[in-house]
Amino acid sequence: MLRCHARRGASVVAVQAALLASSSGAFAQSGNTELPAVTVEAPQAARAKPVARPSKPRSASAGRAARPVTPIANVSASTQNRTVTTSAARDGLNQAPAGQTATTIDRSQFDNRPALSVSDVLRDSPGISIKQGNGPRDFGISIRGSNARNGFGIRNLVIFDDGFPVTQPDGLSRSDLIDPHAYGAIDVVRGPSSALYGNYATGGALNFRTRPGGTIDGVEYGVDGGSYGYLNNYLAAGKKVGNFEGSLFASDTRADGYIGNSWFNTQTVNFLGTLKATPDDRFTVKIINNDLSTRLPIRQSLNQYYQNPFQQGCATGVSAAAGCATVLLNNNGFNPTAGTDKETAVQAGLGRNDRRTIVGGRWEHDFDNTTTWRNQFVFDDRNISQPTGTTSAIGDFPSYNFMSDVTKRGEILGLEATTFFGAFYNTLTASSDTRAVMPGGNATLGRLTNNLYSETSNYGVRAREGLRLAPSLLAIAGIGWEQTVLKGINTAYSYSGPTGVLDPLKVTAADRQFQNTAPELALLYTVNSEWLVRGRVATGYGTPQVSNLFVVQSGAAGNNTQLQTQKNLGYDLGFDWTPNSTLKLSATGFYEFFRNEIVTQATPLAGVTYSFNAPRSEHRGVELAADWKFQPGWRFTAAYTYLDEVYTEYVENIAKGAVFSFNRAGNKIPGISPNELTARIGYDEFAGPLTGLGGFIELQWKDSFYMDNANLLKAPGYELVNVNVHYKTDLVSDTFRTLNLFLEVRNVFDRTYVASANNITNTVSAAGVQDPASTLANTTGSIYAGSPRLFVAGMKVAFR
C-alpha cells in the first residue's frame, strides 16, 4: 500500500532527483543535452542530505501555491537550475527509464554536419545497426540484431516522437518522416522492453525529441547541397511566450540519387506546441506530415553488385549492361499467356508515392505536487502507392492510439518510491490491394492480384515501481499485460486464358488472439560518484502482423495462420564510469533467449517474403561507448557493438519436388554483422580569432555477415572514412544571431560497399543437396550498394 506521508515534500523531490539520475547509467554514453533530461547521477551526499519537511499534509491547492523545488546536484550547466517534477519523471519513461540500458544522442553530436538521414545520427549509439531500405530515408534500424533481417521499414522496436507513438498498431515504423535537422536529441533504449512499451518492443525503443521552441528562440534557415543533386532547404522556428511554447520544422529535400532510378523528392513538417493552461494543466499538440515521391531501383544479386553496383546503363532490359537488375512483367498485366517482358527499374518506372500524417494531443494534470495524470491520443494515417517490383501495394492505413497513466511520487514502507500505472488501446483497420505491374512505363498497373482486409487491436495495462532500498541502491520492477487481436480476410485473384477469365477466388480468413505478459526487474548500485553498476532481467514479445498470416513458403497466397508470438528473455549487466567531466565510459553485456522468433526471408517469387517461427535462438553481445575530451578543444567518441546470434533449435524444410530438411541449430542468424564500430576524433577552436572553427575525422566499420540460413554466402564488410570541417560564429546584428558553415566528404576513399543485403533463401538440387555459395550469389532481390564518395556543403543562419 502506498503511504504518502506529510513529510514527503522536499525529501521526496530530492530522492526523485536521484531516482531519475540513476538512469544516467543509460545516459552515461551521451553528451551534455540542452533538453530537460537528468543525465548524470547526483552524488550520494546530495541524495542523503536532510531537508526540511512540512509538518502536515498539504492539500492540492496548497501544493499548487508552493511546490517544493530541489536543484539537481552535479549536472551539466544547462540543467543545473531545472527541477525534477512528477511530470519529468513521466517524461523519463520515454527518454531514460531507470534501470534500462540506454543512450541519448544529443544535438552537439550532429549539429555541425549534414545529417542526410536517421542513419547519420543513430550510428553514434552502440547496439544500433542501420541498413538501407526502400527509399532515400527509409532505413532499417536494428537494436541488438532485432530488425536486421527485415527487408523494409522497422520492426521489433517501438518509436516515439516527443513521446507520441509513431509505430502503428501492426508494429510497423518507417523512418521516411525523420529529418534529423528537426531534433535536439534521440533516446535509444536497448533490450527487451515490452513491460513498458508493449507489443513489438523485443529490441527496445527510440524517442526522437524535437527542439523546444524556447531553445530555438527565433527562426533558423539552413540549406545543404552536394553530390548527385542533393539539396535540402529547411526551416526551424520556435518561441516561448508566456505559458505557450511552440516549435515548427519544415524541410524540402530532393536528389537525383547515386544508383540508377533512385531520384527522390520529399517534404516534411513537424510541429510541437505546449500550453500551460493552469498551474496544474498542460496541453500539448503534435503534428507530423511527410510526403514522399521516389523512384526505386531493384535489389541485385551479389554477383550483379560486383559487376555494376550503381546500376548504370540500365535503360531497358533488352539493352541493359551487365549487372542491371530486372523484373519479369506480364504483357497483359494478369498472366503470361500474352508473353512477358524483362524490364529494368527505369523502364518499368518503379518507385513509391506515400504520405504519412500524424496528429496527436496530450493533456497532463497535476493533482498535487506528487501526482500527475496524463492522457494522450494519436491519429496516424499511412497512405501508400508502391510499385516496387512485379506488383504494386496500394492502401490507406489509419490507426488510433490512446494512452492514460498516472505517475506518483511517495513512499512504500517508509522507502521513497515512484509508482507508474497506465492503460492503453490502439487499433488499425485497413483494406489494401496488390496489383500487377505491367509494361508501359511509369509503373503501369494491371489487374488486381490480392486484397487484404485487416484489423489489428492491442489493449492492456502496465505498471512500474521504482523503490530506493538504500541511499546507493535503486530497484525497479515492472510488468505489462496485453491482449492482441488480429483479424484478416485475404482474397487472391488469378486469371486464365488470353482474355483473363477470373478463376475461383482463393479466400483465407484468420481470427487470432494473443495474450502476453512481460515482467522486468532491474537494480542500480551507485558505488560512488564515479561508478554505477546496473543489472536487469526483462522480457519482450512481438505478435505476427496480419499480412504474415497469408503467405506460404513458396511465396503464394495461402494459410500461414499458425504463426506464434515471438518472446525473448534478456539479461543485461553493465557499468558506467565517469571519473570526471571529461571522460565517460560505458560497457554492457547482454544475453537474450528467444522462443518462436519470427524470421522473415525471401521466397522464390520476386518481392514476396515469408515469415516463420524459429523455435529457439540466442542473441548475445557486448556494447561499448566512450566520450573523452582528452585536451581542451579535442573530443574522441566511439560506439562499438559485438553480436553473436545463433539458432539453437530450427529445422528448415526446402522443397524441390520432394521436401528436404536441414538442421540449422548452431548456425549464425543471417543478416547480423558481428562487429560494428563508429569512432570520431575532432577538434574545435575555443579561443582567439578562429573560435568556432573545427573539424573531425570519422571511421565506420561493419563486419561481413551471412546472407542465408545455411551460412554459405557472406555479404562483404566495409570501412568508411568521413571528414568534416565546420565553422560557427556569433553575428553582431539586430537581425542575425549566428552563422554555421560546414563541408563534409563522405566515403573519402571512394569504397564500394553493401549498404543493405536482405536475406536470401537456400535452394537444393533434385537430389536434395544444398546449392553452393556460387549459386546463391546469383540470387536477386537482396543488395543495394552504398554511396560512393559524396561531397556535401551547408550553411545555417539563426535570426532573432
Terminal CA distance:
53 Å
- The percentage helix is under 10%
CATH-defined superfamily: TonB-dependent receptor, beta-barrel domain
Regions with pLDDT < 50 over 5+ consecutive residues?
A: 1-84
CATH class: Mainly Beta
Q: Mean pLDDT, nearest integer?
A: 88
Computed structural class = mainly beta
**Beta fraction of the residues?**
over 45%
Please tell me what the overall shape is.
globular
Tell me the count of domains. 1
Q: What's the CATH topology label?
A: Maltoporin, Chain A
Output the radius of gyration.
27 Å
How does this model look, in words?
- With 800 residues, the chain is mainly beta.
- The chain has one domain: Maltoporin, Chain A, CATH 2.40.170.
- It contains eleven helices and 39 strands.
- A hairpin with a 3-residue loop joins strand 8 and strand 9.
- The two termini are 53 Å apart.
